[in-house]
Amino acid sequence: MIRVSQHYFCIPECLARQRRPINVAITAGPRPGTRIPRGNYPIELAVWVADQHVHSCQYTLDVIVKKCKDVFPPSDGSVHCSYGTIWGSKCNFSCSAGYELLGHHSIICEEHSNEMSWSSSFPKCKKIPYKYSPSVKSLPCLKPQQPSDGTVVCDSNGQSMYPDGSVCQFFCYPGFLIENLLTSNALIVCKNGQWTPNSNVQCIATYCSDPRQPEYGSVRCNNKDVKEASFKSKYKNGTSCHFQCDTGYVIPKSQRHLNKITCYAPHWNDSSIPECKRRFSVKYLT
């Protein structure tokens, strides 16, 4: 806001009555179009008509800045104001991708009853809930491949192609889990020609098979799973096994580090097994 607080001299009446053009030039003070901050600014003008006497005009500009309260960007959004928070400034709000604006997109700093306020309350950004709807022009998906040690069931009776939006579920046989997910089942959805997530699903064993036994020896394991008949020869993850030799045989000292193996499904931590060699006894003749 600009207010003239002092006015010492204006254009002489004799010059104002003339129909000839009046020349005006600023001899001191801010030039037209200059943005000036709050404060007092003396202005001096030179006024004349053709070759007549030059008159001076002096006055003071009292610049008063009226402001609204500070503006902050909404969560998950941004705001841009034309002149900050001063009178007449316009602020435009926007939201990040995946969010929608609740409220007015633009507000203006205005004066109401000698008080400065924004034209409306600040808007907020709300996350847009994701809803998948099959597209009319979307592409079908190829039939997902059935994993070994598992099966796949789909809601569409497609032969080699499945329409967009089809859902398939993978199941692993008992004793197997889906690789990386460590669950027994997983869902995939056909979206515009691609299965999401990836349809390359593999079922991995959660048990180790029977460890090999050394010749002239045996193996004993703890934590053996005998809950189901089909798993009697399977060993749970973490199972430890120890090798021992038959009577008259012994594991050589150089191979004693192979005496124990542990199941890290679906494999044992060491595929090597120790040897059982005949124990020789020395008899002394007397």
From TrEMBL:
Classification via InterPro entries? SEZ6_CSMD_C4BPB_Regulators (IPR051277), Sushi/SCR/CCP_sf (IPR035976), Sushi_SCR_CCP_dom (IPR000436)
SUPFAM superfamilies associated with the record: Complement control module/SCR domain
Signal sequence span per UniProt? none
Q: Where is the Sushi domain?
A: 66-127, 139-205, 206-278
Query: Does this entry carry the keyword Iron?
Result: no
Superkingdom classification of source: Eukaryota
Q: Which residues cross the membrane?
A: none
The record's keywords, sorted A to Z, are: Disulfide bond, Repeat, Signal, Sushi
- What PANTHER family would the database entry show? PROTEIN CBR-CLEC-78 (PTHR45656:SF4)
Q: What name does the UniProt record give this protein? A: Sushi domain-containing protein
Organism of origin: Araneus ventricosus (Orbweaver spider)
Q: What is the lineage of its organism?
A: Eukaryota, Metazoa, Ecdysozoa, Arthropoda, Chelicerata
